[in-house]
Amino acid sequence: MVAAADAQNYAQKLGISHGLVVQELGWDEDTDDALRAEIEEVSGGEMVDVDSDEVVDAVLLWWREGDGDLADELMDAIGPLSDEGFIWVLTPKTGQSGHVDPSEIAEAAPTAGLTQTSTISLGSWTGSRLVQPKAPSKQR
Hints:
Helix content is 29%, strand content 27%. It has helices at 4-13, 33-43, 70-78, 102-111; strands spanning 22-25, 56-62, 81-92, 115-122, 125-131. A five-stranded mixed β-sheet has the order 1-2-3-5-4, with helices on both faces.
């Protein structure tokens, strides 16, 4: 569990701001409820789930060792993502049950057409930010 002030700081670190539509994937009993609540408070709405047909600004993907094929999951997550949207893959930290080696994310991201831009610490979770590469501008 995270203290409220830390959770708010974490929501800001994740780039969550008021009005963003955030999709949550991979929720389970071990997810950080304080962080989830803070994201909803900062964004001003509930996170949407996999069944939503909304275009989303951010995806929060809780991912653990044994959850399956990360590249496949990332490709599915891109579907409703806006052009400027981003995906946070949240994995348990080293030594925690379900820890995912960072190389797994580094390998899965380009397979799904994504680029990893940063990694941050979020209590007992590590967040890896993935974005869709910008298309080169066509200037003549």
